[in-house]
Design goal:
Layout lengths: L70 E2 L2 E2 H14 L4
Length: 94
């Protein structure tokens, strides 16, 4: 099914949209509940202001991303990187 130039909200329940492609799509304020996005690839996506709750990020990778203001469990990711850098620089060389 092709949906092009649509401007109305969709309500999708109990559906299998595996291997779907979303390109140049506005999902601003969309809600995803009980959704399987495993092995999904996000490229050039704006997640600013998004909230992730009860999400399984195991084996997920984040590369080449803007992380300013991003928090994990209330801690700024930038601060986590700084703390990790300090810890690893203080470790004795083997």
């Amino acid at each position: 099914m092709n949906i092009q130039d649509a401007k109305q909200p969709l309500v999708v329940t109990h559906a299998d949209l595996s291997k779907s492609t979303f390109r140049d799509v506005n999902l601003h304020e969309a809600q995803f509940t009980d959704v399987n996005l495993s092995k999904t690839r996000f490229t050039d996506v704006n997640f600013s202001g998004s909230i992730f709750v009860d999400v399984n990020f195991s084996n997920a990778e984040i590369d080449d991303c803007e992380l300013s203001g991003m928090k994990i469990r209330g801690i700024l990711v930038i601060d986590l990187f700084k703390a990790y850098g300090k810890q690893s620089s203080q470790s004795p060389d083997p």
